[in-house]
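User: Okay, second chain of the day. Same drill as before: sequence in, structure tokens out.
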Amino acid sequence: MALEMKILQLEIYVDSKIIINQLLGSFEVKKEDLLPYHQYASGLLEKFDQVFLNHVSREENHKVDALANLATTMALGENESTKKFVAKNKIDWHKKIGEALWAYQTTFRTATQATPYSLVYGVEAVLSLEQQIPSLRIAIQEGLTSEENAQLHLAELEALDEKILEAQQKLECYQARLARAFNKKVRPRSFQVGDLVLAIRRPIILNKRIGDKFTSKWDGPYVVKEAYSSGAYKIVDKDGLRVGPINGKFLKQYFP
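Assistant: Same drill. Structure tokens below.
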């Protein structure tokens, strides 16, 4: 994008000192799978008159941190299509992963109400179909001069911070709705010291042999020996063998 805008001097902020030293030639790139990326980045930097590489910590680089948080907090289910696409091509998966990633990056996300691509570049990706059958935005951009097009890109980049913040707020609201829906189904369980309880056999009680499928999944009774504020309990069996700490959701009241 900077090359398209004919920018001659570029100032880059990177949160990795290793990458900066590798681009400056101070460090050698040892991993073979990273060499193509290093060569591509070095080739791009040579096209500018001046390039300034500045190191900035992740705490200070709020934009990168916000994008990283959005990426890591997305539901795993949204990436299932990418996994399935690559799994079908076990031999030549490396040739197909580009298509899968493109589909993932341009897919609308319910949590953020945006596509990952737009949160990085500030604008939606241009699909190949839009080149064959020009959409409204393509028709408008074709009528712009180079200077007007550069100003449009600059305005989109200036609005990117606000767009990322809005997506982060929508993500937090989405997670809050999920939490409320989940908490409605949760039955809080609290026990006192001395209470008799049963403990679920799996995955907590591993020192007992599991029977057939008709065997009860609850084991005990146990006596609550200690109660923690976090909702965990330490229990003992009739022989005095201690088990735990165990989360209260794996226990239930026992009535002799």
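The longest helix spans residues 160-185.

User: Thanks, on to the next one.
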